Amino acid sequence: MRKWLYRLFIELTNHSLSSKLLASFARSRLSALLIPSYAKIYHINQEEMEKSLKNYKTLQQLFVRRLKAGTRPVDADEHAIVSPVDAIIEEMGTIQENSEIIVKGKPYSIAEMLGSAEAAQPYVNGFFFILYLSPSHYHRIHSPISGVIEKQWSLGRKSYPVNRLGLKYGRRPLEKNYRLITEVTAGGKRMAIVKIGAMFVNSIELTHKEERLVKGEEMAYFSFGSTVVLLFEQGSFVPDPRIHPPMPIKVGERLGYWC
Questions:
Q1: Left if phi > 0, otherwise alpha if psi is -120 to 50, otherwise beta: which for 42?
Q2: Residues with catalytic annotation?
Q3: Which DSSP category does 222 fall into?
Q4: What is the pLDDT of residues 47-63, one digit of tens each?
Q5: pTM: predicted TM-score of the whole model, two decimal places
């Protein structure tokens, strides 16, 4: 019953009209009235923001805020893979032979997430991370490695929530939500950075237009909280032993190493 009610609520509210209305409000000057309470409710760290709270004129501007220079130091080890976002590591583990991953006890298909079995094949028996961004998090996305963008594509239309309830009761949000996928290669190894849209607001804006990425460099931003999935080829990645989900992590902190 709980699962049915949850899905019914999402279907009734996750309409293109409601999405447009919410996005329009977040970009309006009227939304500025909510900024002080939003910052308080979500415990926004104002000390690290590029601007003071009063300088943000809309909720949208606060969602996509930048941080002061040097706030997120990037692990300098050339073999280190770093977190692309401030987030909670919700899950991590091995991608199964059938190209599935298990998240909150529920199987998700990498083939569905990437759009085809062919796209998923390089990641079979590889490693994955699920990085969840709440509304309180910094929403800009940075490159986890230095490398070359080989391919970039988008899939999906509607978006279910990607929080714990969404992962448990939603209609397979990691596979079906709007998502923007970036494949990057470095030193003969490949990884996929899957940026997944959240409920109501699908906007994922690219800010990096070049072919080559530098570790720690900004790539894009979410217009609202969401999720990033990282996929690694078999034998190419070893996680840092200190990583144990669920745990918080910040941009530039080490997730593990290239093999």
A1: alpha
A2: 86, 142, 226
A3: E
A4: 999 999 999 998 888 88
A5: 0.85
